[in-house]
Amino acid sequence: SPMRFRADTTYYISGNFTISGAIFEGGSVLKYAPGASLAVDSAISEETGTFRPVIFTAATDDSVGEPVNLGTSTFPRPPPTGTFGSPCLWIRGAGSGSAYPCTLDASNFRFAHAFIGLRLHGGPNHTLRNTQFRDCTTAIELIGSSGQTLNASIFNGLVVRCTNAFAASGAMVNLKAQHMTIAGAQRIRDGGSEEH
To answer: N or C: fewer beta carbons within 10 Å in the chain?
Structure first.
């Protein structure tokens, strides 16, 4: 059964973890060590809202959730520098070691201070609604798998101060973005090819 990340609970992701499925409740906070990641085959969000998002951020980000004790006695800590989470959330699909078709159907996700906020690796259909990426090196990484088209749809997205809004590699990646705002990015797309 999928792992449930409960509302009003802070989780510390200290390394690389793989689970078969995840349910993210609105109000859950996941804090990452540098280079840490959470890989899942499928994920959904439940009971999220504008004021009750699921937050993926740095272990040193004390602006949300409970502080993570990293052996320092300085609270509150200064704002995070560097990047955490590589990626914060990795939806694994065919060709990435997963035996299951992968999907992401989520609303109100917030990613901050990540090396890679979200990685979509294969899988037929992914949908994100009301999702934000802030201060990431790459907001979303799309990796196509041979023989399967990756379809990703983003509705009402925000990317702020990220080096790359999107990075693409591999074969057969389709991205549909509606009501997407990108501000302060050095590149909208890194890698891949474009068809019109």
So the answer is: C
